[in-house]
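Why this split exists: single-chain examples teach little about how molecules sit against one another. For that reason, every record in the complexes split bundles all components of an assembly together and asks for one structure covering all of them. Below is a record exactly as it appears in the raw files.
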Amino acid sequence: MSVHFKNQLRGYSVVIPPLQALSRDLCKKCIGLEGAKTKVIKGLKKLRMDLENSSLPQGEKEEVTTMINRLLEMAEGIDVTEETTCQKTAGNCKIGQACLALDAAWGLMKQITEP
Amino acid sequence: MSDVEAMDVRGACCLSTAGVSDRLESLSEGEILEVVLDEAMYDALTELAREKNCEILETKKEGNAVMVRLQKKKRMLKVKPSADYPTEEGSYLRGNDFSPVAVAVLLNAPRPLPNQPDTKDIKIPPEIENLVRVAVETGAALAGTLQTENIGIEKLISNVVGNPNIRYLVLCGAEVEGHKTGDALKALLKNGINDRRTIIGTKAPTPYLFNIPLEAIERFREQVTLIDLLGETNPEVISKAVWSCYQEKPVQFKDYTLFDPGAYPKPAISCRLSLMVEHPEEIEEWELDEIAKKIKAGLTVEEKKVVEKVITKDEKFVEIGKRLAKVSEELLVIAKIFMGEEAAVEAPRVEVTAPRVEVTLPKEEALSKVEEMEILYFENQLRGYNAVFAAFNALKNDMCGGGLNLPLAVNKAIKKLENLRQDLDKSPMPAKKKGEIDSRINNFLKQAEELPTEPGPCQKTAGNCNIGPGCFANGALDILKLITEPKR
Protein backbone atom coordinates (compact mmCIF):
# COMPACT_ATOMS: atom_id res chain seq x y z
CA MET A 1 0.00 0.00 0.00
CA SER A 2 1.35 3.45 -0.82
CA VAL A 3 2.67 5.43 2.16
CA HIS A 4 0.26 8.29 1.45
CA PHE A 5 -2.86 6.15 1.72
CA LYS A 6 -1.46 4.17 4.64
CA ASN A 7 -0.73 7.35 6.61
CA GLN A 8 -4.09 8.91 5.84
CA LEU A 9 -5.91 5.76 6.92
CA ARG A 10 -3.90 5.61 10.13
CA GLY A 11 -4.79 9.26 10.75
CA TYR A 12 -8.52 8.82 10.26
CA SER A 13 -8.49 5.65 12.38
CA VAL A 14 -7.13 7.75 15.26
CA VAL A 15 -9.35 10.79 14.63
CA ILE A 16 -12.73 9.09 14.49
CA PRO A 17 -12.78 7.42 17.96
CA PRO A 18 -12.27 10.71 19.87
CA LEU A 19 -15.10 12.23 17.82
CA GLN A 20 -17.28 9.27 18.73
CA ALA A 21 -16.34 9.81 22.37
CA LEU A 22 -17.18 13.50 22.10
CA SER A 23 -20.57 12.66 20.64
CA ARG A 24 -21.46 11.26 24.05
CA ASP A 25 -20.54 14.64 25.53
CA LEU A 26 -22.27 18.01 25.15
CA CYS A 27 -20.47 18.19 21.79
CA LYS A 28 -23.34 16.06 20.47
CA LYS A 29 -25.39 19.24 20.09
CA CYS A 30 -22.43 21.27 18.85
CA ILE A 31 -21.75 22.70 15.43
CA GLY A 32 -18.04 22.05 16.11
CA LEU A 33 -18.55 18.27 16.21
CA GLU A 34 -20.92 18.46 13.26
CA GLY A 35 -18.22 20.36 11.36
CA ALA A 36 -15.50 17.89 12.37
CA LYS A 37 -17.70 14.99 11.28
CA THR A 38 -18.32 16.66 7.91
CA LYS A 39 -14.62 17.31 7.49
CA VAL A 40 -13.75 13.67 8.17
CA ILE A 41 -16.41 12.41 5.77
CA LYS A 42 -15.35 14.81 3.05
CA GLY A 43 -11.70 13.98 3.64
CA LEU A 44 -12.38 10.25 3.30
CA LYS A 45 -14.43 10.79 0.14
CA LYS A 46 -11.60 12.85 -1.30
CA LEU A 47 -9.19 10.07 -0.38
CA ARG A 48 -11.42 7.61 -2.24
CA MET A 49 -11.42 9.86 -5.29
CA ASP A 50 -7.64 10.18 -5.14
CA LEU A 51 -7.42 6.41 -4.85
CA GLU A 52 -9.54 5.90 -7.97
CA ASN A 53 -7.21 8.18 -9.92
CA SER A 54 -4.06 6.60 -8.51
CA SER A 55 -1.90 4.02 -10.25
CA LEU A 56 -2.08 1.54 -7.38
CA PRO A 57 -2.56 -2.12 -8.40
CA GLN A 58 -6.25 -3.14 -8.47
CA GLY A 59 -5.86 -5.51 -5.52
CA GLU A 60 -4.43 -2.81 -3.31
CA LYS A 61 -7.05 -0.34 -4.47
CA GLU A 62 -9.77 -2.71 -3.34
CA GLU A 63 -8.06 -3.21 0.02
CA VAL A 64 -7.79 0.54 0.61
CA THR A 65 -11.35 1.13 -0.61
CA THR A 66 -12.65 -1.40 1.91
CA MET A 67 -10.78 0.38 4.70
CA ILE A 68 -12.02 3.80 3.56
CA ASN A 69 -15.59 2.52 3.44
CA ARG A 70 -15.28 1.08 6.92
CA LEU A 71 -13.98 4.40 8.24
CA LEU A 72 -16.72 6.27 6.37
CA GLU A 73 -19.31 4.09 8.03
CA MET A 74 -17.79 4.86 11.42
CA ALA A 75 -17.68 8.59 10.67
CA GLU A 76 -21.25 8.68 9.44
CA GLY A 77 -22.28 6.95 12.65
CA ILE A 78 -20.94 9.77 14.82
CA ASP A 79 -24.01 10.81 16.73
CA VAL A 80 -24.83 14.49 16.27
CA THR A 81 -28.24 16.05 16.87
CA GLU A 82 -30.13 17.27 13.83
CA GLU A 83 -29.98 20.86 14.98
CA THR A 84 -26.65 22.00 16.30
CA THR A 85 -25.37 25.22 17.71
CA CYS A 86 -21.96 26.26 19.00
CA GLN A 87 -21.96 25.20 22.63
CA LYS A 88 -19.49 27.93 23.49
CA THR A 89 -21.80 30.67 22.30
CA ALA A 90 -24.70 28.82 23.96
CA GLY A 91 -22.75 29.18 27.20
CA ASN A 92 -22.46 25.44 27.86
CA CYS A 93 -18.87 24.73 26.80
CA LYS A 94 -16.39 26.56 29.00
CA ILE A 95 -13.08 24.89 28.20
CA GLY A 96 -11.49 28.07 26.79
CA GLN A 97 -11.00 29.20 23.22
CA ALA A 98 -10.31 25.83 21.61
CA CYS A 99 -12.89 23.49 20.17
CA LEU A 100 -12.43 19.91 21.38
CA ALA A 101 -13.90 18.36 18.24
CA LEU A 102 -12.34 20.50 15.54
CA ASP A 103 -9.00 21.17 17.17
CA ALA A 104 -8.48 17.66 18.53
CA ALA A 105 -9.38 16.02 15.23
CA TRP A 106 -7.23 18.31 13.16
CA GLY A 107 -4.44 18.37 15.72
CA LEU A 108 -4.17 14.63 15.11
CA MET A 109 -4.42 14.80 11.31
CA LYS A 110 -1.80 17.54 11.25
CA GLN A 111 0.72 15.07 12.68
CA ILE A 112 0.88 13.65 9.17
CA THR A 113 3.26 15.72 7.08
CA GLU A 114 4.73 13.02 4.85
CA PRO A 115 4.91 12.07 2.06
CA MET B 1 -4.45 74.27 -8.80
CA SER B 2 -6.88 76.95 -7.56
CA ASP B 3 -6.58 80.57 -8.64
CA VAL B 4 -5.72 83.06 -5.88
CA GLU B 5 -7.20 86.52 -6.03
CA ALA B 6 -5.71 89.19 -3.74
CA MET B 7 -7.48 92.12 -2.02
CA ASP B 8 -5.55 94.67 -0.01
CA VAL B 9 -7.97 96.47 2.32
CA ARG B 10 -5.50 98.00 4.74
CA GLY B 11 -6.76 101.38 5.96
CA ALA B 12 -10.42 100.48 5.23
CA CYS B 13 -12.89 101.38 7.96
CA CYS B 14 -15.23 98.48 7.24
CA LEU B 15 -14.94 95.20 5.35
CA SER B 16 -18.29 95.65 3.60
CA THR B 17 -17.47 99.00 2.07
CA ALA B 18 -14.09 97.61 1.03
CA GLY B 19 -15.96 94.97 -0.99
CA VAL B 20 -14.77 91.93 1.00
CA SER B 21 -18.27 90.97 2.02
CA ASP B 22 -19.57 90.89 -1.57
CA ARG B 23 -16.51 89.06 -2.80
CA LEU B 24 -16.83 86.37 -0.16
CA GLU B 25 -20.48 86.01 -1.09
CA SER B 26 -19.65 85.55 -4.78
CA LEU B 27 -16.72 83.16 -4.26
CA SER B 28 -17.25 79.93 -6.13
CA GLU B 29 -16.15 76.50 -4.92
CA GLY B 30 -12.40 76.05 -5.32
CA GLU B 31 -11.64 79.76 -5.65
CA ILE B 32 -9.25 81.22 -3.05
CA LEU B 33 -9.34 84.82 -1.87
CA GLU B 34 -6.30 86.38 -0.22
CA VAL B 35 -7.15 89.40 1.95
CA VAL B 36 -4.49 91.70 3.44
CA LEU B 37 -5.99 93.80 6.24
CA ASP B 38 -5.16 95.67 9.40
CA GLU B 39 -4.70 93.46 12.42
CA ALA B 40 -7.58 95.25 14.18
CA MET B 41 -10.00 94.04 11.51
CA TYR B 42 -9.05 90.38 11.79
CA ASP B 43 -11.87 89.39 14.18
CA ALA B 44 -14.42 91.09 11.92
CA LEU B 45 -13.11 89.07 8.97
CA THR B 46 -13.39 85.75 10.80
CA GLU B 47 -16.98 86.61 11.72
CA LEU B 48 -17.74 87.58 8.13
CA ALA B 49 -16.18 84.37 6.84
CA ARG B 50 -18.48 82.34 9.11
CA GLU B 51 -21.52 84.28 7.88
CA LYS B 52 -20.61 83.75 4.26
CA ASN B 53 -19.92 80.03 4.76
CA CYS B 54 -16.20 80.41 4.06
CA GLU B 55 -13.27 78.80 5.81
CA ILE B 56 -9.87 80.27 6.62
CA LEU B 57 -7.06 78.30 5.04
CA GLU B 58 -4.07 80.32 6.18
CA THR B 59 -3.29 83.33 8.36
CA LYS B 60 0.06 85.18 8.25
CA LYS B 61 1.04 88.24 10.30
CA GLU B 62 3.20 90.85 8.58
CA GLY B 63 3.94 93.80 10.91
CA ASN B 64 0.59 95.49 11.71
CA ALA B 65 -1.10 93.74 8.81
CA VAL B 66 -2.47 90.20 8.48
CA MET B 67 -2.72 88.12 5.32
CA VAL B 68 -5.68 85.74 5.34
CA ARG B 69 -6.53 83.16 2.68
CA LEU B 70 -10.13 82.02 2.48
CA GLN B 71 -12.30 79.74 0.39
CA LYS B 72 -15.94 78.70 0.27
CA LYS B 73 -16.69 75.67 2.43
CA LYS B 74 -17.20 72.59 0.33
CA ARG B 75 -20.78 71.42 0.22
CA MET B 76 -21.20 68.02 1.75
CA LEU B 77 -22.45 65.47 -0.72
CA LYS B 78 -25.28 63.30 0.54
CA VAL B 79 -27.19 60.88 -1.63
CA LYS B 80 -30.22 58.65 -1.40
CA PRO B 81 -29.50 54.98 -0.69
CA SER B 82 -30.55 52.35 -3.23
CA ALA B 83 -34.32 51.82 -3.45
CA ASP B 84 -34.15 48.39 -1.78
CA TYR B 85 -31.68 49.43 0.96
CA PRO B 86 -31.04 47.65 3.28
CA THR B 87 -31.22 44.61 1.03
CA GLU B 88 -30.47 41.88 3.54
CA GLU B 89 -32.57 40.98 6.54
CA GLY B 90 -30.88 40.66 9.85
CA SER B 91 -30.79 41.69 13.43
CA TYR B 92 -30.25 45.42 13.04
CA LEU B 93 -31.94 48.78 13.47
CA ARG B 94 -32.16 51.38 10.74
CA GLY B 95 -31.45 54.98 11.73
CA ASN B 96 -30.75 58.13 9.73
CA ASP B 97 -29.97 57.15 6.11
CA PHE B 98 -27.76 60.23 5.70
CA SER B 99 -25.53 59.39 8.65
CA PRO B 100 -21.94 58.46 7.74
CA VAL B 101 -21.61 55.62 10.23
CA ALA B 102 -22.75 52.02 10.67
CA VAL B 103 -22.14 49.96 13.79
CA ALA B 104 -21.50 46.21 13.95
CA VAL B 105 -21.81 44.72 17.43
CA LEU B 106 -20.28 41.25 17.65
CA LEU B 107 -22.73 38.68 18.93
CA ASN B 108 -21.77 35.84 21.22
CA ALA B 109 -25.09 34.05 21.46
CA PRO B 110 -26.61 30.84 20.12
CA ARG B 111 -27.39 31.09 16.44
CA PRO B 112 -30.93 30.47 15.28
CA LEU B 113 -31.80 26.86 14.73
CA PRO B 114 -32.69 25.69 11.22
CA ASN B 115 -36.39 25.51 12.13
CA GLN B 116 -36.26 29.04 13.51
CA PRO B 117 -34.88 31.02 10.60
CA ASP B 118 -36.60 34.18 11.69
CA THR B 119 -33.96 36.36 13.29
CA LYS B 120 -36.50 37.54 15.84
CA ASP B 121 -36.06 34.15 17.49
CA ILE B 122 -32.40 34.72 18.27
CA LYS B 123 -31.96 35.43 21.90
CA ILE B 124 -29.81 38.52 21.90
CA PRO B 125 -28.29 39.35 25.28
CA PRO B 126 -29.76 42.63 26.62
CA GLU B 127 -26.34 44.30 26.86
CA ILE B 128 -25.76 43.69 23.14
CA GLU B 129 -29.26 44.89 22.30
CA ASN B 130 -28.53 48.01 24.31
CA LEU B 131 -25.35 48.72 22.32
CA VAL B 132 -27.30 48.46 19.06
CA ARG B 133 -30.00 50.77 20.36
CA VAL B 134 -27.53 53.32 21.72
CA ALA B 135 -25.69 53.41 18.37
CA VAL B 136 -28.85 54.17 16.42
CA GLU B 137 -30.13 56.63 18.97
CA THR B 138 -26.81 58.50 18.79
CA GLY B 139 -27.17 58.81 15.05
CA ALA B 140 -25.89 55.72 13.22
CA ALA B 141 -27.38 54.86 9.82
CA LEU B 142 -27.47 51.17 10.67
CA ALA B 143 -26.56 49.29 13.81
CA GLY B 144 -26.84 45.57 14.27
CA THR B 145 -25.27 42.38 15.46
CA LEU B 146 -22.67 40.40 13.57
CA GLN B 147 -21.99 36.77 14.32
CA THR B 148 -20.43 34.79 11.49
CA GLU B 149 -17.26 35.37 9.53
CA ASN B 150 -18.85 34.42 6.21
CA ILE B 151 -22.61 34.94 5.68
CA GLY B 152 -22.72 37.55 8.48
CA ILE B 153 -20.01 39.68 6.88
CA GLU B 154 -21.61 39.21 3.45
CA LYS B 155 -24.92 40.59 4.73
CA LEU B 156 -23.11 43.51 6.32
CA ILE B 157 -21.31 44.31 3.05
CA SER B 158 -24.53 44.05 1.08
CA ASN B 159 -26.31 46.54 3.34
CA VAL B 160 -23.43 49.01 3.59
CA VAL B 161 -22.75 49.31 -0.16
CA GLY B 162 -26.44 50.09 -0.64
CA ASN B 163 -25.90 53.38 1.16
CA PRO B 164 -22.92 55.47 -0.04
CA ASN B 165 -23.43 57.90 2.87
CA ILE B 166 -21.95 55.26 5.19
CA ARG B 167 -18.24 56.03 5.39
CA TYR B 168 -17.33 54.56 8.78
CA LEU B 169 -17.87 51.16 10.28
CA VAL B 170 -17.61 50.92 14.05
CA LEU B 171 -16.74 47.37 15.10
CA CYS B 172 -17.39 46.67 18.78
CA GLY B 173 -18.35 43.99 21.27
CA ALA B 174 -16.49 40.93 22.51
CA GLU B 175 -14.94 38.71 19.84
CA VAL B 176 -17.15 35.80 18.72
CA GLU B 177 -15.37 32.73 20.04
CA GLY B 178 -15.19 29.97 17.49
CA HIS B 179 -15.85 32.35 14.58
CA LYS B 180 -13.27 35.13 15.10
CA THR B 181 -15.63 37.38 13.18
CA GLY B 182 -14.05 40.61 14.44
CA ASP B 183 -10.64 39.45 13.30
CA ALA B 184 -12.09 38.44 9.91
CA LEU B 185 -13.75 41.82 9.35
CA LYS B 186 -10.57 43.68 10.23
CA ALA B 187 -8.54 41.45 7.92
CA LEU B 188 -11.05 41.93 5.10
CA LEU B 189 -10.78 45.70 5.27
CA LYS B 190 -7.00 45.54 5.56
CA ASN B 191 -6.11 42.78 3.12
CA GLY B 192 -9.19 41.91 1.05
CA ILE B 193 -9.82 38.43 -0.32
CA ASN B 194 -7.80 36.12 -2.56
CA ASP B 195 -8.93 34.41 -5.75
CA ARG B 196 -10.41 31.57 -3.70
CA ARG B 197 -12.77 34.08 -2.09
CA THR B 198 -11.03 33.70 1.25
CA ILE B 199 -10.30 36.66 3.51
CA ILE B 200 -6.54 37.09 3.63
CA GLY B 201 -4.69 36.97 6.94
CA THR B 202 -7.42 36.08 9.41
CA LYS B 203 -7.58 33.48 12.17
CA ALA B 204 -11.28 32.87 11.47
CA PRO B 205 -11.92 29.20 10.61
CA THR B 206 -14.11 29.63 7.50
CA PRO B 207 -13.69 33.19 6.21
CA TYR B 208 -15.22 32.53 2.80
CA LEU B 209 -17.25 35.14 0.91
CA PHE B 210 -18.88 33.03 -1.80
CA ASN B 211 -22.25 34.71 -2.07
CA ILE B 212 -21.56 38.32 -2.85
CA PRO B 213 -20.22 40.01 -6.00
CA LEU B 214 -16.53 40.91 -5.98
CA GLU B 215 -17.50 44.43 -6.95
CA ALA B 216 -19.45 44.82 -3.68
CA ILE B 217 -16.53 43.56 -1.62
CA GLU B 218 -14.14 46.02 -3.27
CA ARG B 219 -16.61 48.89 -2.90
CA PHE B 220 -17.08 48.06 0.78
CA ARG B 221 -13.34 48.22 1.35
CA GLU B 222 -13.05 51.55 -0.44
CA GLN B 223 -16.19 53.10 0.98
CA VAL B 224 -15.69 52.59 4.71
CA THR B 225 -13.01 53.27 7.25
CA LEU B 226 -12.93 50.92 10.21
CA ILE B 227 -13.19 52.29 13.71
CA ASP B 228 -11.75 49.35 15.56
CA LEU B 229 -13.35 49.01 18.97
CA LEU B 230 -13.09 45.23 19.10
CA GLY B 231 -13.67 44.12 22.69
CA GLU B 232 -15.38 47.40 23.64
CA THR B 233 -18.76 47.00 25.30
CA ASN B 234 -19.19 50.36 27.00
CA PRO B 235 -22.22 52.15 25.48
CA GLU B 236 -20.72 55.57 26.24
CA VAL B 237 -17.63 54.81 24.16
CA ILE B 238 -19.72 53.50 21.25
CA SER B 239 -21.93 56.56 21.46
CA LYS B 240 -18.88 58.87 21.40
CA ALA B 241 -17.51 57.05 18.37
CA VAL B 242 -20.78 57.44 16.45
CA TRP B 243 -21.07 61.11 17.39
CA SER B 244 -17.48 61.79 16.27
CA CYS B 245 -18.12 60.30 12.83
CA TYR B 246 -20.79 62.81 11.86
CA GLN B 247 -19.06 66.00 12.99
CA GLU B 248 -18.47 68.59 10.27
CA LYS B 249 -15.09 69.61 11.68
CA PRO B 250 -12.50 66.94 12.50
CA VAL B 251 -12.55 65.72 16.09
CA GLN B 252 -10.19 63.39 17.84
CA PHE B 253 -11.57 60.05 18.99
CA LYS B 254 -8.93 57.71 20.42
CA ASP B 255 -6.35 57.40 17.58
CA TYR B 256 -8.79 58.51 14.88
CA THR B 257 -9.44 61.97 13.46
CA LEU B 258 -13.10 61.80 12.51
CA PHE B 259 -15.52 63.97 10.58
CA ASP B 260 -18.25 63.44 8.03
CA PRO B 261 -16.57 63.37 4.62
CA GLY B 262 -19.89 63.17 2.72
CA ALA B 263 -21.11 60.35 0.55
CA TYR B 264 -18.81 58.01 -1.36
CA PRO B 265 -18.65 59.58 -4.83
CA LYS B 266 -20.09 56.60 -6.74
CA PRO B 267 -23.65 55.29 -6.97
CA ALA B 268 -25.01 52.83 -4.44
CA ILE B 269 -24.68 49.13 -5.23
CA SER B 270 -27.81 47.10 -4.77
CA CYS B 271 -27.03 43.44 -4.24
CA ARG B 272 -28.40 40.42 -2.45
CA LEU B 273 -26.65 37.26 -1.32
CA SER B 274 -26.70 34.62 -4.05
CA LEU B 275 -26.63 31.81 -1.46
CA MET B 276 -24.79 29.63 -3.94
CA VAL B 277 -23.04 28.26 -0.86
CA GLU B 278 -25.45 28.21 2.05
CA HIS B 279 -23.09 26.45 4.42
CA PRO B 280 -19.63 27.95 3.95
CA GLU B 281 -18.65 26.51 7.35
CA GLU B 282 -18.72 23.04 5.79
CA ILE B 283 -16.31 23.85 2.98
CA GLU B 284 -12.88 22.27 2.98
CA GLU B 285 -9.78 24.06 1.80
CA TRP B 286 -9.27 21.61 -1.04
CA GLU B 287 -12.74 22.43 -2.39
CA LEU B 288 -12.09 26.17 -2.68
CA ASP B 289 -10.63 26.21 -6.21
CA GLU B 290 -13.52 24.22 -7.59
CA ILE B 291 -16.10 26.40 -5.82
CA ALA B 292 -14.46 29.62 -7.00
CA LYS B 293 -14.54 28.24 -10.54
CA LYS B 294 -18.22 27.33 -10.24
CA ILE B 295 -19.12 30.75 -8.84
CA LYS B 296 -17.35 32.38 -11.75
CA ALA B 297 -19.34 30.21 -14.14
CA GLY B 298 -22.57 30.99 -12.25
CA LEU B 299 -23.27 27.39 -11.25
CA THR B 300 -24.98 26.24 -8.07
CA VAL B 301 -22.39 25.00 -5.69
CA GLU B 302 -24.26 22.99 -3.15
CA GLU B 303 -27.64 21.43 -2.99
CA LYS B 304 -30.00 23.11 -0.59
CA LYS B 305 -30.50 21.10 2.55
CA VAL B 306 -34.03 20.03 3.14
CA VAL B 307 -34.78 20.34 6.81
CA GLU B 308 -37.32 17.76 7.70
CA LYS B 309 -39.91 18.76 10.23
CA VAL B 310 -39.07 17.26 13.57
CA ILE B 311 -42.05 15.51 15.06
CA THR B 312 -41.95 15.43 18.82
CA LYS B 313 -43.18 12.54 20.92
CA ASP B 314 -46.26 14.50 22.00
CA GLU B 315 -47.14 15.33 18.40
CA LYS B 316 -46.88 11.61 17.56
CA PHE B 317 -49.39 10.73 20.30
CA VAL B 318 -51.84 13.34 19.05
CA GLU B 319 -51.45 12.05 15.49
CA ILE B 320 -52.08 8.46 16.60
CA GLY B 321 -55.12 9.66 18.58
CA LYS B 322 -56.60 11.41 15.56
CA ARG B 323 -56.15 8.29 13.44
CA LEU B 324 -57.76 6.05 16.08
CA ALA B 325 -60.74 8.39 16.27
CA LYS B 326 -61.13 8.19 12.50
CA VAL B 327 -60.92 4.37 12.61
CA SER B 328 -63.63 4.24 15.31
CA GLU B 329 -65.93 6.43 13.21
CA GLU B 330 -65.47 4.12 10.23
CA LEU B 331 -66.08 1.03 12.40
CA LEU B 332 -69.36 2.60 13.55
CA VAL B 333 -70.47 3.02 9.96
CA ILE B 334 -69.60 -0.63 9.24
CA ALA B 335 -71.54 -1.74 12.38
CA LYS B 336 -74.63 0.15 11.16
CA ILE B 337 -74.47 -1.64 7.83
CA PHE B 338 -74.16 -5.12 9.38
CA MET B 339 -76.53 -4.82 12.35
CA GLY B 340 -79.19 -2.32 11.34
CA GLU B 341 -80.08 1.06 12.78
CA GLU B 342 -81.16 -0.28 16.24
CA ALA B 343 -77.69 -1.56 16.84
CA ALA B 344 -76.35 1.73 15.83
CA VAL B 345 -75.47 2.81 19.29
CA GLU B 346 -73.18 5.66 19.04
CA ALA B 347 -69.73 4.38 19.62
CA PRO B 348 -67.76 6.27 22.15
CA ARG B 349 -65.55 8.84 20.56
CA VAL B 350 -61.94 8.15 21.17
CA GLU B 351 -60.05 11.15 22.17
CA VAL B 352 -56.39 10.80 22.82
CA THR B 353 -54.29 13.56 24.16
CA ALA B 354 -50.60 13.45 24.76
CA PRO B 355 -49.83 12.27 28.26
CA ARG B 356 -48.57 14.92 30.58
CA VAL B 357 -45.12 14.05 31.79
CA GLU B 358 -44.13 15.54 35.05
CA VAL B 359 -40.61 15.14 36.22
CA THR B 360 -39.73 16.00 39.75
CA LEU B 361 -36.07 16.75 40.08
CA PRO B 362 -34.39 16.05 43.37
CA LYS B 363 -33.70 19.21 45.28
CA GLU B 364 -30.03 20.02 45.38
CA GLU B 365 -28.38 22.46 47.63
CA ALA B 366 -27.20 25.62 45.90
CA LEU B 367 -23.52 25.61 45.08
CA SER B 368 -21.20 28.48 45.86
CA LYS B 369 -19.32 30.17 43.03
CA VAL B 370 -16.07 28.50 44.16
CA GLU B 371 -17.71 25.09 44.17
CA GLU B 372 -19.18 25.69 40.73
CA MET B 373 -15.78 26.61 39.33
CA GLU B 374 -14.20 23.60 40.99
CA ILE B 375 -16.74 21.26 39.42
CA LEU B 376 -16.30 22.95 36.05
CA TYR B 377 -12.54 22.50 36.27
CA PHE B 378 -12.76 18.75 36.85
CA GLU B 379 -15.60 18.26 34.37
CA ASN B 380 -13.59 20.04 31.68
CA GLN B 381 -10.48 17.97 32.39
CA LEU B 382 -12.49 14.76 32.16
CA ARG B 383 -14.01 15.87 28.84
CA GLY B 384 -10.44 16.08 27.57
CA TYR B 385 -9.49 12.62 28.89
CA ASN B 386 -12.56 11.22 27.23
CA ALA B 387 -11.14 12.16 23.84
CA VAL B 388 -7.55 11.27 24.78
CA PHE B 389 -8.41 7.74 25.85
CA ALA B 390 -10.53 7.17 22.77
CA ALA B 391 -7.49 8.06 20.67
CA PHE B 392 -5.20 5.90 22.84
CA ASN B 393 -7.51 2.91 22.42
CA ALA B 394 -7.44 3.38 18.66
CA LEU B 395 -3.65 3.67 18.65
CA LYS B 396 -3.30 0.46 20.66
CA ASN B 397 -4.36 -1.44 17.54
CA ASP B 398 -2.05 0.56 15.31
CA MET B 399 1.72 0.06 15.06
CA CYS B 400 1.96 2.56 17.95
CA GLY B 401 0.80 -0.27 20.24
CA GLY B 402 4.25 -1.85 20.07
CA GLY B 403 6.11 1.44 19.85
CA LEU B 404 7.76 3.91 22.17
CA ASN B 405 5.59 6.99 22.37
CA LEU B 406 2.18 5.48 23.05
CA PRO B 407 3.32 3.83 26.32
CA LEU B 408 5.11 7.05 27.29
CA ALA B 409 1.98 9.08 26.57
CA VAL B 410 -0.18 6.60 28.49
CA ASN B 411 2.17 6.79 31.48
CA LYS B 412 2.00 10.58 31.37
CA ALA B 413 -1.80 10.46 31.25
CA ILE B 414 -1.84 8.11 34.26
CA LYS B 415 0.37 10.51 36.23
CA LYS B 416 -1.84 13.44 35.28
CA LEU B 417 -4.95 11.54 36.33
CA GLU B 418 -3.35 10.69 39.68
CA ASN B 419 -2.51 14.36 40.16
CA LEU B 420 -6.07 15.23 39.25
CA ARG B 421 -7.32 12.86 41.93
CA GLN B 422 -5.03 14.45 44.52
CA ASP B 423 -6.41 17.85 43.54
CA LEU B 424 -9.90 16.44 43.83
CA ASP B 425 -9.22 15.27 47.39
CA LYS B 426 -8.31 18.83 48.36
CA SER B 427 -11.21 20.36 46.49
CA PRO B 428 -13.97 22.07 48.48
CA MET B 429 -16.76 20.64 46.29
CA PRO B 430 -19.65 18.62 47.80
CA ALA B 431 -18.77 15.03 48.72
CA LYS B 432 -21.40 13.53 46.38
CA LYS B 433 -20.01 15.30 43.34
CA LYS B 434 -16.48 14.44 44.47
CA GLY B 435 -17.44 10.79 44.51
CA GLU B 436 -18.84 10.99 40.98
CA ILE B 437 -15.72 12.61 39.59
CA ASP B 438 -13.48 10.21 41.47
CA SER B 439 -15.30 7.28 39.93
CA ARG B 440 -14.81 8.75 36.46
CA ILE B 441 -11.09 9.21 37.13
CA ASN B 442 -10.93 5.58 38.26
CA ASN B 443 -12.67 4.54 35.08
CA PHE B 444 -9.95 6.17 32.99
CA LEU B 445 -7.23 4.63 35.15
CA LYS B 446 -8.87 1.26 34.61
CA GLN B 447 -8.87 1.86 30.86
CA ALA B 448 -5.17 2.72 31.12
CA GLU B 449 -4.50 -0.77 32.53
CA GLU B 450 -5.56 -2.20 29.16
CA LEU B 451 -3.18 0.10 27.28
CA PRO B 452 0.53 -0.52 26.63
CA THR B 453 2.75 1.05 29.29
CA GLU B 454 6.05 -0.72 28.55
CA PRO B 455 8.01 1.30 25.96
CA GLY B 456 9.10 -0.59 22.86
CA PRO B 457 11.22 0.56 19.93
CA CYS B 458 10.33 3.87 18.26
CA GLN B 459 8.43 2.95 15.13
CA LYS B 460 9.94 5.91 13.31
CA THR B 461 13.52 4.74 13.85
CA ALA B 462 12.43 1.20 13.06
CA GLY B 463 11.33 2.56 9.67
CA ASN B 464 7.68 1.61 10.11
CA CYS B 465 6.09 4.99 10.85
CA ASN B 466 6.50 7.40 7.97
CA ILE B 467 4.10 10.18 8.84
CA GLY B 468 6.85 12.78 9.32
CA PRO B 469 8.23 14.25 12.56
CA GLY B 470 4.77 14.32 14.19
CA CYS B 471 3.49 11.61 16.51
CA PHE B 472 -0.09 10.42 16.93
CA ALA B 473 0.41 9.40 20.57
CA ASN B 474 1.82 12.77 21.58
CA GLY B 475 -0.87 14.48 19.50
CA ALA B 476 -3.50 12.51 21.40
CA LEU B 477 -2.11 13.57 24.77
CA ASP B 478 -1.96 17.18 23.55
CA ILE B 479 -5.76 17.21 23.36
CA LEU B 480 -5.58 18.00 27.07
CA LYS B 481 -3.81 21.27 26.24
CA LEU B 482 -6.94 22.49 24.48
CA ILE B 483 -8.60 22.86 27.86
CA THR B 484 -7.45 26.19 29.23
CA GLU B 485 -10.39 27.20 31.42
CA PRO B 486 -11.06 27.57 34.26
CA LYS B 487 -7.56 28.31 35.44
CA ARG B 488 -6.50 26.89 38.76
